[in-house]
Each structure stands twice: as structure tokens, then as C-alpha cells.
Amino acid sequence: MKLSDLIVQHKNWLENQEAGDQIDLKTITLDTEQITNAVLEGAIFEQVTFEELEFFSCDFTGSSFFDCIFSSCQFIHCSFHKAEFHNCQFERVKISKCSFTKTEWYHGNLQQARFANCDLSWSYLESIDLRYGQLSDINLEGVFWHNTKVYGACFKGIHFGNMHPARIQGTDISQDGDGSEDIDLQRFREIFECDRC
Fold first, then answer.
1. Domains of the chain (ranges plus CATH)?
2. DSSP alpha helices (H): ranges in the chain?
């Protein structure tokens, strides 16, 4: 199935709920497609596999993703304002110049994901696996980060916030991913700030 086939109906639904259909997809695979300037606001994706999709300047504001898999996907200049990710996996995913403000992430696997020039301010991350991920030039102002695994991750140019500093609790910095501790932002920087990402 092609996502682009559903976007027009979803756009009509956003304008008038009686004139189109909200994207509400369950248990399908969407693959090898390039989506540009799509408005996917309020879409619901459940057990959807996204394979080799490229999204440019798309709006996922208020969208929900449940048990989804993103494999070899790319997101550039996209907005995920107030979106939700529950039990999602990101495999070989590149995310650049995207906004995830006030986004909620629960029990996700983002191992080896690459985030560059993104805004995650005021987001909530619970039980996220970021091991071996790369995050560069990221805004974490006001973020609450709880029970997150970060061994081997690379953080470069991270803005933890001044007025509302990020709160990091229960961070697992062990290689095997079975130990957590509370570390302050200074120690976090000392351990993870690097130049390789």
C-alpha cells in the first residue's frame, strides 16, 4: 500500500470530517516511497512497518504511532509536535532538522538512530533505548528523560536548557543495558559528549 494514496483523503478529513477519511492504519507495510509536504496531522498508525520511506517537510502534529517499525527511513524538516510513539522501533533511521516538541516516547528502541539539528524541547522519554545512537545539535530544553539506555551513544552540541534544564533520571550507561543510575547533566556531558557523530 502507498501512503501517498491516503494523504488526499486525510487532508479532506482535516478540513471537514465528513468529507474524507482520517488515516487510521493497522498491521500493514508501507514501503519505498518519497513523501513531500504531506499533512498527516492526527493520523493513527498501529503495527505499521515503514520501510525505506523518505519524508520531507511533512506534518505529523498530534499523530500517534503504536508498535510501529521504521526501517531505513529518513525524515527531513518534519514536525512531530505533540505526537506519541509507543513501543516503536527505529532501525537505521536518519532524522534531520525535525521538531519533536512536546512529543511523548514510551518503551521505544532507537538503537543506532541518527538525529541531527532537531528540537525535542519539552518532550517526555520513558524507557527508550538509544544505545549506539548519534544525536548532534539537539535542543533538550525542559525534556524529562526517564529510564533510558545510552551506552555507546554519541551526543554532540546538545543544548540541555538554561531556564528549564533537561531532567535525566534512571539513565542506564552500562553496556549490557541492565543497570541505571541518576546522573547530573555535567556528568552526562563528560561521559557522552564526543566528536564522532
1. 23-62+70-192 (2.160.20)
2. 4-15, 185-192
